[in-house]
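Reading a protein record of the kind used here takes little practice once its layout is understood. Each number in the token line that follows is a code from a learned vocabulary of backbone shapes. One such record is shown here in full, so that the layout can be seen directly:
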Amino acid sequence: MPASTYDPALVDRICNRISEGATVKEACTAEGTSREVFREWRRRATDAGRYALNAYMIAREERATVMVDDMLDVAERCERGEIDAQAARVKIDTMKWVIARMNRLDWGDKTSHEHSGPDGGGIQVIIEPATSADGESTDDGDQEDR
């Protein structure tokens, strides 16, 4: 039966395994609990839940760094002829995809949104004086033209 009583030492052991590259499932199984129990601990709106969530987020960041080291190792092994180039490419591409989803800010693809007017030109902005309900201008003429 998986442990379900919150244990900060168990959270630390699970997170240490995750930070070393293990998946949540692998880490929980190795520590004798389930993903569901670990997930419940992270979702609690208590100090314990916040501790578990914070520890998990740090572990995920560290795991991404471990995975980068693993990608470099795969590339080096491929250069030495120890593994097939296509197999290395699949492994590295998979790890890059996973890292980009685990930590979009640091490892995700950069996206940019641009707004433009007709034919890629500038956007024309027209500022008109405000009018009241009866159609009268509310511009007091006090401001300078810009």
